[in-house]
Amino acid sequence: MGCWAKLKSSGWVYPTTVLSIYGFLANCRVAEPFLTPYLIGPNKNISEEVVTNYLFPIWTYSYLAFLFPVFLLTDFLKYKPVIMVQGLFLVSNYLLLSFAPGLPAMTFLQVNFGVVTSTEVAYFSYIYSVIPLENYQKATSYLRSAMLTGYTFGASLGQMLVSLGGVDYFYLNAITLGIVCVAFITSFWLPMPKKSMFFRGEKAEDSLSQNEGSLKNDRRRGSEADKEGESSEDERTGHAGSAGWCSGKGVTTAGHLLWKSFKESYSSRQIVYWSLWWALATAGYMQIFNYIQLRWDHIEPSASSSIYNGAVEAVSSVVGAAAAFSVSFARVTWATWGELALGLFSAVCSGAVYLMAFTGSIWACYAGYVIFKSCYMFLITITIFQIASNLSMECYALTFGINTFVALSLQTVITVIVVDEAALGLDIVTQFIIYGSYYAAISVLFLIRGTYTACARHRSVDRTEPREKEPGVEVIAAEYL
User: Fold this and answer.
1) Residue 201 pLDDT > 60, yes or no?
2) CA dist list (Å): 370 to 32, 275, 442
3) DSSP character at residue 193
4) Positive or negative, the Cα torsion across 198, 199, 200, 206?
5) How many CB atoms are closer than 10 A to CB 381?
6) Comparing C-alpha atoms, which of 452, 450, 411, 456 is closest to residue 434?
7) pTM for this structure?
8) Which label site among 11, 74, 244, 300 has the fewest CB atoms less than 10 Å from its CB?
C-alpha cells in the first residue's frame, strides 16, 4: 500500500502508468488481424463483396461523423470520461462480434467502431492535462510504446493460437472481449484532470496574462515562491473552469483560444507542408490498413489455406517502430532535406503498394505491406517531431485533430468514389492499383517541392556566411530529435 500511495503522489508517474496499462490492454486485440476471415467465413458468412463495398465504408463515414464533435467534447469533458467511453464501446464492439448474428448487427458494429477510433484523440491528449511540461517527452514515449507493445503482443498471440492451437476465430474474439473488459475497468483508475486546454471558464482568458505576470515575479523570489505561485494558479484556473464552462462567455473564450491556436499552428509555411503530407499520406495509410486483409484473402483464401495475418502485423509493427526510433539517430537538417525525404520515401510506399496490387504471391504481398508500413511510420515520426518542435502542446493537440480530420475527409472521398457500391465499387486489386498511383502523386508533389526547398536553402547559405536563422522560421536540426 505504501508503494501505491507513493506512486499516486509522484505527480506524473501514476497517470502515465495507468494510461500506459490501459493503452496496452485496449490495443491488445487478439482477433483484429483476423477480422476479415471471421466476417467472410462460416462464423458470420458475409460475402467478400459486401464486406469490401458495403461494411467497411460505413466505418469510414462513422469515423468522420464523430471525429470533430468528439474532439471538442473531449476537451470540454476533461478527457477521462471520453477514455472511459472508448473502453465501453470497445467492450460492446467485441460483444457484437462474438454474439450478434446477421448483416444488420455487423453494420451497427462499424458505427460502434467509428466511435472507438474517434475517441483515440482523448488517449493522446489526456496526459498533457495532468502532468508537468518537463515530463511530456517521457510520457509520450511510454504511451506510444505501450500501444505498440499491446498491438504486437495481441497480433502475435492471435497468430500462435490460430497456427499452433487451431483455435477458432470466435474464441479469439472472446479472448479479446475479456482483455478490453479489463481495459475498461482500468480507465476508472485514471485521475480526473483539473483543467482543460480550451474550455477554461469565464475568467480564464482575463486571468492568463495576470497569472503569467505573477509567475514571473514569483520566479524572481526563488523556487519556494515558484511552487506556491504555480499551486495558486492551478487553484484559480480550476475554480474558473468549474464555474463557467457552460456559460456563453466560457464558450466564447474557448472559441477564441481555438482560433488563436489555429492561427499559430498554420502560420508557418513549413508546418503547412508537413501537415499536408500528414493528411495525404495518412488518408492512404488508413485505406490500405483497412482493406489489406481483403487483399490477402483474395490471394490466399483463408477458408482453404493457412494465413499469417497476425504474424505479419506483429512484424510490421516492430519494424515500423524500429524505423521510427531510427529517426532520433539521423543527423539530418530536416528543415532543408525533410520535404525531399517525404518525396523519396513516398515513392518507396508507392512501389510497395504496387507490389501488393500486382503480385500473386502471398509472401510478396506480406513483404510489400511490411515495407509500406515501415516507411509510413518512419515519415510520420519525422512529421510529428517537426510539427511538435515548433508548437506549444495546446496548438499541437489542435493541429493533430485538424490534420486527422482532413486525412479522414480525404479517405472518405476515396471510399465514396473507389470503394462504395453506390459509386464505382471497384474490386480489391483495382483499388490497390489506385492507392499505388495515389502515393506516386504524393511522391511527385513532394519531390518537386523538396528539390525547390533544398536548392533555395543552399543558395541562402552561399549568400550569407556564417549562416543565420531566418526571422520567424525555426531551423530544426538533429539535436531537436
Assistant:
1) no
2) 17, 24, 20
3) P
4) positive
5) 20
6) 411
7) 0.77
8) 11
Cα separation, 125 vs 127, whole angstroms: 6
Where is average pLDDT lowest: 116-125, 158-167, 461-470?
461-470
Q: How far apart are CA 180 and CA 169, in angstroms?
A: 17
Q: Cite the beta strand spans of 159-250 per DSSP E.
A: none
Report the distance separating Cα 38 and Cα 30, nearest Å.
13
Instruction: Please provide residue 337's backbone torsions phi and psi, each rounded to the nearest 5 degrees.
Output: -105, -5
Alpha helices in 245-333 (DSSP H): 248-265, 269-299, 309-325
- Output b/e per residue, 250-259; b: 16+ Cβ within 10 A: bbebbeebbe
| Closest by Cα among 232, 240, 228 to 195 | 240
Residue 17 half-sphere exposure toward CB, CA atoms < 13 A: 11
C-alpha cell at 87: 473502453
In the structure grid, which three cell numbers stand for residue 263, read together? 492561427
| pLDDT at 244 exceeding the cut of 60 | no
Note the Cα 84 to chain centre separation in Å. Answer: 18
**pLDDT, tens digit, 9 for 90 and up, residues 148-171:** 889 999 999 999 999 998 899 999
Task: Write down the pLDDT at residue 361.
Answer: 93
Nearest to 59 by CA among 83, 43, 35, 37: 35
- The amino acid occupying position 210 is Q
Distance CA 255, CA 204 (A): 13
Q: Any idea how long the chain is?
A: 481
What b/e readout covers 398-430, taking b as 16+ CB neighbours within 10 angstroms? bbbbbbbbbbbebbbebbeebbbeeeeebebee
Residue whose entry in the numeric block shows the C-alpha cell 482543460: 196
Kindly tell me the burial class for residue 446, based on how many C-beta atoms sit within 10 Å of its own C-beta (0-12, 13-18, 19 or more).
buried
Let me know the angle formed at the C-alpha of 276 by 385 and 432, rounded to the nearest 5 degrees.
105
DSSP category for residue 119:
T
Supply 22's cell numbers.
490501459
